[in-house]
């Protein structure tokens, strides 16, 4: 693994909690786009911080202030790709009579988006698996966005703790199927079956105010 993939110490003046100015946001956008282009052409190994800096026309030191390592950058790129996907899904919500059908349709659309650019998908997923505690904030954003995409598809306005747990399991399953497909250990058909199976958890969980075991139900 390239040396800069392990560089996870944040730059002294990096403050991810501070809102970016319009100029900073534009710079960050160029960096993410440059990263995606390089990954699309050559996968994980093609994303080198110096090349990203040159392609996005920012100084190398500036790049490290935004993203302390290659892993930070690729995980942020995955977050960015999921944001774009989420916006697309909101414009054209998934069809389906049940929450399980809608979620499965949504995740398969997300999977097909990854499938269209396998080198980029592989680079982002590899970064996600390499991420250590130093990248926990960025990884959390990826899983939060995945959860938001799934929740939107369910149409649940007030999900129960059980339903939220099912959503988390479904999200973990989707990320796991990406890994198994990218590593050649699962076919697209198998991915579809696994996602549909996991999505049935949504329909198996009780809705609000309807507990699974009612005292007055007959034995």
TrEMBL record:
Top-level taxon of the source organism: Bacteria
SUPFAM superfamilies in UniProt: Homeodomain-like
Xref: PROSITE patterns: HTH_TETR_2
UniProt keyword terms in alphabetical order: DNA-binding
Species of origin: Streptomyces althioticus subsp. attaecolombicae
Domain HTH tetR-type: 25-85
Disordered, as annotated region: 1-24
Pfam families in alphabetical order: TetR_C_20 (PF17925), TetR_N (PF00440)
Ranges of biased composition (kind: Basic and acidic residues): 1-12
Protein name per Swiss-Prot or TrEMBL: TetR family transcriptional regulator
